[in-house]
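On clarity, I found the account of how folds are encoded harder to follow than it need be. Since the whole study asks how a given chain folds, the encoding of that fold should be made plain. For the editor and my fellow referees, an illustration may be useful. An entry of this sort, consisting of the sequence and the corresponding backbone structure tokens, reads as follows:

:::
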Amino acid sequence: MTAPSIQLCLALHNHQPIGNFEDVFEAAYQDSYLPFLELFEPYKHLDISLHTSGPLAVWLQGRHPEYLSRLAALVSQGRIEIIGGAFYEPILTMIPSRDRRGQIKCYSQWLEQHLGGAVRGLWVPERVWESELTTDLAVNNIQYAILDDYHFRRSGLNPDQLTGYYITENEGHTLRVFPGSEKLRYLIPFQNPQRTIDFCREMAHQQPGCVLVFGDDGEKFGTWPDTKKHVYQDGWLREFFDALTENRGWLKTTTLASAVGSTPPRGKIYLSDASYREMTEWAMPVEKQLEYDQLADEMASDDRWARVQPFLSGGFWRNFKIKYPESNEMYARMMYVSRLMERAETMSIEPSLLDRARDFLYQGQCNCSYWHGAFGGIYLPHLRNAVYQNLLAAECLVERSQHGGQPWVEATKEDFDFDGRDEIRLANDRLVAWFSPCRGGSMYELDLRDLSHNLLATIQRRPESYHQKVRAGQNRGSDETSSIHDRVVFKQQGLQQCLGYDQRLRKNLIDHYWDDEVDLGSVADGVAWERGDFADGPYEAATLVSPESIQVQLKRSGNAWGIPLTLTKSVILKSGEPELGISYLIEGIPAGRSFHFGVEFNFAGMPADQEDRFFSDADGRVLGHLGSRQDLHDSAELELNDQWLGLRVAFSMDRPGGIWAYPVQTVSQSESGFELIHQSSVVQPHWQVHGDGDGSWATTMTLSFDAHSSDNQKHVEQMLALS
């Protein structure tokens, strides 16, 4: 008896983020993208839909144009449908509507030019969906998009309704939305191919003629851990393609476009704001995530769990900006540049320069470093650095054009990070320093324009739900190739001993009062007790502006050990100078009383454990790499050198004292396992503070930045060339 027919849409999503290493791109190409294409080409009866993200497509154009030519040939044969998207793979709900529309339009044009065929479908990055997206997709001639069946279950559909596609609407604009099968995501390619055939046969009997959709990462086919051997060397993919071919009498692989053309919609639906299921769990606060996991484990054996689970929802993607304040800082920086671009488009700026600046902005919207789950995400310094580099490049191009390349300086005050409280921005043609008076009067971003580099793009050490697995300290896989969601693998030994947490964000100008006996080890390990309320308390802020310099003054009346003190710190930035002048004044010190006082600085994007990244003293003597601990006494200077980046940071102070330096390292999760990652190097000068006759103590410090010749600097100069 012939089985009822069914259509299976295989939609692959191939992506590498902006800033990923060249060898990672190449390895993914050799391990996933190329072998999949080579194996697929001879199977003439199989059709697929393919989304290749813009960063990857541009890389392929430069490194492997022959791959794009082969794709174009299959597109012309109707065997591959090209799915579009936003050019640089942003979370669509994270960026302004004008940028969403711009990215989608640009990428559709690029794809049609290089691969042929009309782009009518769209890959929604990380399947983060909000209803307002319908309008922006529809006005760009996008007819359909892929989400997860989780979105549809949250909106009230039953399992037997999770096939085909539905119509959704916003402001009178309509869009077709496909539910991608979570069941298929976990079957392919981790289970025997016959399991997928059996599932399709079951669905064909239940719903003859229905459409099933598999939509997931192409990296599952060779790049994810252990999958290269499983998928290619052990023959899983060939066996899968053979099985699809053998069953093509009733099981037809088809493109999303063909499915839309051959089947009517199943109905109309308004979807809940959601992402895929796993991401809703990752977006929750850690304590709620642990509670959710425990509840799910306890309920798993309960017969009612399958009925109850669809009514439980996890977190909301936007709350990654709450869970990780560093993500919100990056987001706020992106929004600042987006608004700058919007204003620049009304000015008389060379159109080609605006196009370049807009492309840098779009690259800075690439989603991967704005969140964290099974992949490294925000914990990966090279991804954060790439976002900031592109955002700063966009800003520099516009501002250099506006100022005619001449030195300038300015101060602005507004709520840059959308928390209802004003921040302060000091900027000249060489540096930009951002201050948060309400958060300890700290400097939360420090941009070097010569290198398009944010020296404060670091991250706090904080608890993560998976740290429980790290503490357990045992690798875990399965008898078959495991999904990355099920693996427990340690990339280094002894990670349990590396778990430690910070009391606050890692910023500059954080003011500490320590017990006299506190030493480098206790501060570096995060176990020293804070004895004042200055590190986190709000400061009053004022700016002083002159034609050649700007100054921010931050003042707080607080206490240390219960003793009232007033602390005033000032930062001066002069026109044309790559240097910050910093002064401190503490008032109200009782006669005969001393305080152990320190000021914390963090320097990010300068990796550790490399011979060309090191600390040195005023005489140029190398003290150790940037991941080493330094405990200097009676010192007034310290330098940080990164010869690859092309940067020397010189720190000096007029009052000699102690200087502690130590690395900040996080234990975080990636698809390949748990790993220790260097995030920043801390420099903390500290003194035994004694008041003068008026009960006051003062010091001045200087931070200067020398960008010298390096391959990186030459690359940045090319990015910022005005012609």
